[in-house]
Amino acid sequence: MVLSIRHRTSCCPARPHPTSTWLTMRFKSLDSWRGLCAILVALYHLGFQSHFGVSAFARGSFLFVDFFFVLSGFVMAQAYVGRLQTKADFTTFLIRRFGRLWPLHMAVLAAYFGENAFKAAAIQVFHLVPKTIPFTGAVSWSSLVANVFLLHSMGLTSELTWNGPSWSISAEFWAYMVFAAVLMRLPRALVTASLVISIAAATVLMTHSTEFMDTTFRLGFVRGLYGFFLGIIVHRCYLRWGQHPLAAATAWEVAIVVAVIAFVSGSYAGAWSYASPLVFAAAVFIFAHDQGRLSQLLTKHPFQALGTWSFSIYMVHNFLVTQLAIWVGRLNRVIESRLSPEQFQTLLKWFANPYVLDALTLVFMCGVILVSAQTFRWVEEPSRLYFNRLASARTAAAQQKAAKR
After folding, report:
1. What is the radius of gyration, based on Cα positions, of the chain?
2. Domain boundaries, the chain
3. What pTM was estimated for this model as a whole?
4. Cβ-count burial 201-230 (b if 16+ within 10 Å, e if not)
5. Total Cβ atoms within 10 A of residue 76
6. Which residues sit opposite 6 in a β-bridge?
7. Which DSSP symbol is given to 270?
8. What is the pLDDT of residues 271-315, one digit of tens each?
């Protein structure tokens, strides 16, 4: 989900030489898919009753989190199979993965914390009576600890807490750890182990989830394992069959996009939702070829930019949605106090017009993208580079120590 995807010079699983060349060309269309999925999840949480917002597709767009999990497994297999064998390798892997997820997660968590601290101070100073008490319920101190340690997809809380969508970051981080353990302990049985883990996770979801596929804080980790290890299987299939041209690539791409839209629109609320990672796995396999007309479109700069900012879009949008709700509520109270009841109802009806909400949705999403571009620039990218330097230094130290033996 959050790693650039590179084609390797060889599909051999053997450990590459440290100086071996890796091609810099990415699976560009999959990068863009990541950005589009982040936008769709943000629109789902925005929840405006616009033309898009009332559609079945919008109501089912939470399923695109499972696209992230499948794509993340594909990416991790591409990057680390054959390169994760020793304790030093694991330490480097842990540093890089932690540095990719945790800093931005903490930055957004700090924004929520600051909001609650400000509210608590305002209560003490001005004796306000807020609608919600700071540092209680979904923003309690105990849930804060779970969030800091990325444990909030493990069933330790009774609801979504703090930055709600970040439950998937918790699930993904611990899926990384399981992946590393499998690679180090069962390197020759990766496909078998991935199949077993994915099937076992799907079985747990189908037998224990009360929300079908829309389980987050309760069984989010299990949901992540299902999609992540399915993505690894997709990657191994790609190495075997994806090196050859895809006949009628454009037709396949159009067909899978139609299938994804139809599936998300019609299956999000029932037991069929459990099949969403399978549908997304097919999409990842087809678009990994980067051969059809849709893939060519997705390589254009606007889509690539969305892919670059996708993690930031995913992480910051919910905070902006909550702030929008707060300020809209305050604005409503001010306007209502200055207008007659008839004038206020007329104004509300005007804002409830789907076309007006379409425009407001567009403006808000542009704002999300602009903010995300800045969090990418000032938080996400610097922290990634910093932790990568730590990992490289750790690797160099381990190599020097081995050379002296």
Report:
1. 23
2. 28-104+165-404
3. 0.92
4. bbebbeeebeebbebbbbbbbbbbbbbbbb
5. 26
6. 26
7. S
8. 999 999 999 999 999 999 999 999 999 999 999 999 999 999 999
